[in-house]
Amino acid sequence: MLAIVFLLLGTLASAGQAVLAGAWPWLGPLAQGAGIACLVASVRGAARAKGLPSWSLARQKGHPVWLAYLLACSLVLVSLSLRLALQSLLGTTHLYITFYPAVMLAALAGGFGPGLLATLLSVLLAQGLVFATAGQAALQAGDGVALCLFLGAGWMVAASTDRMHRALARAGDAEARAQGAVELERAQEVLRRTVAELVRSNEELERFAYVASHDLQEPLRMVNAYVGLLGSRYQGQLDGKADQYIAFAVEGAERMQGLIHDLLAYSRLGSQAHRFPLISAEDALDVALASLRSVFEASGARLVRDPLPRVAADAGQLAQVFQNLLGNALKYRSERPPLLRVGCREHHGLQTFFVKDNGIGMDPQYSQRIFEIFQRLTIRDTCAGTGMGLSICKKIVERHGGRIWVETSPGEGSTFFFTLNDATGSPA
Amino acid sequence: MSATEILLAEDNPGDVMLLEDALEQSGWEHRLHLVRDGAEALDYLLRRGAHAQAIRPDLILLDLNLPIRNGREVLAETRTDPEVAAIPLVILSGSEWEQGVLKEYGLPGGHYLVKPMNFRGYREMVSNLERLWRNLARV
Questions:
Q1: Among A75, A146, A170, B82, which residue has the least CB neighbours within 10 Å?
Q2: pLDDT of A2-46, one tens digit each?
Q3: Residue B2 distance to chain A (closest CA, Å)
Q4: ipTM of the assembly?
Q5: Which residues, including other chains, have CB under 8 Å from residue B69's CB and lie 6 or more apart?
């Protein structure tokens, strides 16, 4: 609004200047100076009024550049007509009087380029006007001061509005950026809250599993120990059925003990990935074999060991993976004497460990399900186990940033493969 | 050799009975002093209140999962007492997962045993305890 007022003031000032100059020619240079001052002040005023008038093209988003130049040319032509109308009154004096508003309007609307174009075009047309009305001589004797003043004023007006245009563009950008930042912040906040909620519920679950399995062990131990005592002290003193009841109770308690033990082990694995030190997979395999020694000896199994690399891993957990996989291989053996092979090879560029057996194998359709918690494929009597061994393997492997899978078919044995965080693996 | 004074801090009567039976059968000459919660264990070890005249035990068997004050609190409050800290300590726990407690409370000389699943296990544990105690007593 203020910009419009300044604009009107500037235009009135230049028009008044023309009238004054017509009445009192000696006032000419003074009036012209005042007019220019008014024009510049009006542009400055518009700038101080924080921005361009609302009709400025810079305010209209996505306007084509040529439109501002076209507008500049049109304004200059209008000024020329106006100047021609005043020709009888002014002659060749006050040559640029009507061109000032054109320059100002062109600059305000389009910025520096259109402002400068209007200035230069005005000079050209004004000089043409002089040439047309007073001839070559008048052109050569033209008013140098007025020309310089006009050029200077045009330049200043164009430059001033250009600063305004730039400021406006920056403000627009900043506004868009601020808006974007607010939205990003909001999205990040939502994400943060979701992650925190996930972490919390995960921790709660693990804590629950831990507490449950830990506290369940206590009464179970009592059941187990006292049913066992009952069995050993009173075996044969009761009837045969009683002995069988006791045997079932002992067996049930022991099975449950196994389940709780594995559930506890599973819940204690944690899910956060850590940075693991480089350890020898050979050593981890040794630890696993030591735990399985009696089972190995009882089964008469033969083991082929390939050289294993050093890997970034938790030594105890890697040993646990080997132990569970080898234990399974022995548990699900066929009639043939068990033949196991443990090794590591490059598989799609990853260090891939494998545990191969010649056991009963399984239908490949179950190759996903076996890794789920408490999932077992055999009926209870055939093979003892809690159904958690492979879930534990999967959790350990995933915690190490790897994956585990099986290739198998019934009667052909199984090969379990797993990768760890490959990037840190290196040959021994 | 005189009877070994054993302090057992254990709240579960089932565990107490299994241990008592196993001790009886082992032939290890002993006197068992029983405290049923952590607060009583602290009173006994620090000779406070009703236990002001308590006999200094030769061996402490401490369950971690005690009521009122748990086993960890007992460890935390007694390890600074040089007399109590000098007594051989065996932690009895329901699970194998709390072994870190010894390191946590700066007890490198302490022992950690998982409570056995059956009576045979208790008898084995008692004979191991006796062997351990005799080794310590000889030193």
A1: B82
A2: 445 555 555 555 555 555 555 555 555 555 565 566 556 655 555
A3: 31
A4: 0.72
A5: B37, B38, B39, B41, B42, B77
Cα separation, A288 vs A324, in Å, equals 8
Query: CA angle B47-B49-B50, nearest 5°?
Result: 95
The angle that helices A112-140 and A144-234 make with each other, rounded to 10 degrees, is 170
How many beta-carbon pairs below 8 A join chains A and B?
40
Half-sphere exposure of A419 (CA within 13 A, CB side): 17
pTM of the model: 0.51
Alpha-carbon distance of A340 to A304, in angstroms, equals 6
Contact criterion met (CB < 8 Å) for A254 and B119: no
Strand A414-419: give its sheet, edge to edge: A302-305, A339-347, A350-356, A414-419, A404-408
Task: Output the six-digit token pair for B119.
Answer: 């009576």
Residue A173 has pLDDT above 90, yes or no: no
Q: Give B10→chain A minimum CA distance, Å.
A: 12
Query: Is the CB of residue A371 less than 8 Å from the CB of residue A404?
Result: yes
Check: CB of residue A299 under 8 Å from CB of residue A330: yes
Give the one of A225, A232, A264 whose C-beta lies nearest to B117's C-beta: A225
Q: What is the DSSP string of B59-128?
A: EEEEESS-SSS-HHHHHHHHTT-HHHHTS-EEEEESSGGGTHHHHHTT-TT-EEEEPPSSHHHHHHHHHH
Cα distance between the two ends of chain A: 80
Per the model's pLDDT, the better-predicted residue between A89 and A345 turns out to be A345
Termini Cα distance of chain B = 15
What would the pLDDT profile of A392-401 be if each residue is shown by its tens digit?
899 888 888 8
What's the average model confidence in pLDDT over A401-423? Answer: 84
In the predicted model, is pLDDT for residue A1 greater than 50?
Answer: no
Integer Cα distance of A362 and A412 in angstroms? 8
A89-114 per-residue burial string, b: 16 or more CB within 10 A, e: under 16: ebebebbbbbbbbbbbbbbbbbbbbb
